[in-house]
Amino acid sequence: MQPTGAKDTQLRESNSQKVHPQPMEEAANQNPEAIDAMVSRIFSNISSLKSAYIQLQAAHTPYDPDKIQAADKRVITELKNLSELKHYYREHNPKPVCVSPQDSRLAAEIQEQQSLLKTYEVMVKKFQSEIQNKDSEILQLQQQMLEADQKRIKLEKNLKLRGLSVKEPDNAVDENEHFSEGVTPEFFRSAVEVAYRAIHDFSKPLINMMKAAGWDLDAAANSIEPDIVYAKRAHKKYAFESHICRRMFTGFHNELFSMKHENSAVTKDSFYHQYLALREMDPLDVVGQSPDSLFGNFCRTKYLAVVHSMMESAFFGNLDQRNFIMSGGHPRTAFYQAFLKLAKSIWLLHKLAYSFDPPVRVFQVNRGTDFSEVYMASVLENFTVDENEEKPKVGLMVMPGFYVGGTAIKCQVYLTGVKVTD
How far is 56 from 109, CA to CA, in rounded Å? Predict the structure, then answer.
């Protein structure tokens, strides 16, 4: 038996050492509003995390490095926010466990840091992959630069062979000396053939649109050149080709093609450069970039000369396209683009003609002239001379001829007084 005083003393000491942890229900009841707010923040944070993850997945298809990096940053931010909420809850709501609270918290923090480390490792691998892709793109661009440099060197060699070197050598020849040694009569002949085909090609849609508009083609052909006796009715197409040709070649003898322009000063050496510059270009792009250039004014003037206003009114039911062209524009209609191809071929032929020294001269033959195989070529391949005619006569000059130095390129003519054999 212990004395009563000693027993009371032992009980007091025992009570002072005993731990009474606060139940979770009681802690929650103390501040339920704070718990609700935290739960709401957790749900909001999880929703934001889901949204960031969806954006991260979407950024991979199609692959967009910038969007991927931005989505990664957002995911990491949301993970950090969750981590902060967890720390805040642990600090304000301790949970009784068998192990030391400090050990449990430390283990949780280690696990969280390991998760973050894995996330950073994934990001590092992605960045390394992006760096490799960039390095590969740099190598490809360097290869393209090398190939472009090789093409430039080859082009400079070709230009030097033609006397068109961009950099003048120290022993440069006189400025008045003709440089386009690569331009020959045969080269010009091929350009003439291209121009003639372009006239023929444009006449087809023109005639078809006249037919569709209900025009009398016989009367139209007779108005161009009256009283021509055609071997076949289909041969009246040459009247329209002749009309197009006459309009297109008007002013060919002039260095500027009779076009007025403020910067009209030109040199003979520049004509071949102009030819080379335009040869590979789409004429629609040229007039689109410089609608008021010499070539732009040429196309505008020639279109108005070749296509009469009555034709346009019959073709399109109005004169909107014509008014647009007259106001300085170049429409993108199929009909006008077909004309631009014709205009380009004649313009290139003109530039090539003035690349020669002396320039190429144009010659024409009149109706009724006796046929000469020296200066003329018949557009009809198989024909026989009428018995009543001593020599076939020129009915139409379809395409003019050219003098290239001492060489004559024959003009194309339609003959009358002949019969066509199939």
Answer: 26
* 256-271: pLDDT as tens digits: 887 765 555 555 567 8
Closest CA to 345 of 279, 297, 390, 294: 279
Contact 238, 414 (CB under 8 A): yes
Supply 172's token pair. 């440069």
Q: What is 321-387 written as a DSSP string?
A: HHHHHHTT-----HHHHHHHHHHHHHHHHHHHHTTSSSPPEEE---TTPBP-TTTEEES-SSEEE-T
DSSP 160: H
- Mean pLDDT, to the nearest integer, of 234-245? 94
pTM: 0.57
**Contacts by 275-281, CB closer than 8 A, 24 or more apart:** 275/348, 275/351, 275/352, 275/355, 276/164, 278/344, 278/347, 278/348, 278/351, 279/348
Task: Tell me if the bond preceding 32 is cis, omega within 30° of 0.
Answer: no
**412: phi then psi, degrees, rounded to nearest 5:** -100, 125
